[in-house]
Amino acid sequence: MADERTAMDDAVAKVMSRDLRMVTPVTSVMNAALTMRLADVGAVLVMEDERLYGILTDRDIVVRAIASGRDPATTPAGAICSRDLTTISPTTSAGQAVRIMREKALRRLPVIDDETGRVVGIVSIGDIAIERDRQSLLGDISAAPGNV
């Protein structure tokens, strides 16, 4: 009998990014944006004392800082990052991660080790799209080189 498992059955540990970019709550938004640009990523994890404090996305910077008239050089990342976080474990299936993303309108989910409580990765909708079907429009776009 053929293996009927699909990429959606696989644990997110298989597709998550482990090369994490992190800042602290007191890092300026400008420095956080520079970190994003240099790493060609759309989000950084905001960490305090080795624990997840929040997540800061490029959209947060635009909407919560720039469009609100805040100075990115003096505004701390902790003041505008998303704090109400949904996280998953490395053993969560890609299918379950997609359901969570859909239900909560999220594009990224931090992955937390159940035993240590430490961040071990982040999975994005693009990561799952590449794994599921690299030839799909989202998979193709997500796999393309950055434009920095």
Question: What structural keywords apply?
Answer:
single chain, 148 residues, alpha+beta, CBS-domain, three-stranded mixed β-sheet, two-stranded antiparallel sheet, 5 strands, 34% helix, 18% strand, globular
List the helices and strands and how they pair.
Layout: E1 22-23, H1 29-39, E2 43-48, E3 51-57, H2 58-66, H3 77-80, H4 94-104, E4 108-112, E5 119-124, H5 125-132, H6 137-143
Parallel strand pairs: 1-2
Antiparallel strand pairs: 2-3, 4-5
Helix pairs in contact: 5-6
Question: Can you walk me through this structure?
Answer:
The structure is a single chain. The protein is of the alpha+beta class and 148 residues long. It has a single domain, classed as CBS-domain, CATH 3.10.580.10. It has helices at residues 29-39, 58-66, 77-80, 94-104, 125-132, 137-143; strands at residues 22-23, 43-48, 51-57, 108-112, 119-124. The strands form 2 sheets. Strands 1-2-3 form a 3-stranded mixed beta sheet. Helix 5 packs across helix 6. The longest helix is centred in the first third of the chain and has 11 residues, at 29-39. The model is unreliable at 134-144 (pLDDT under 50).
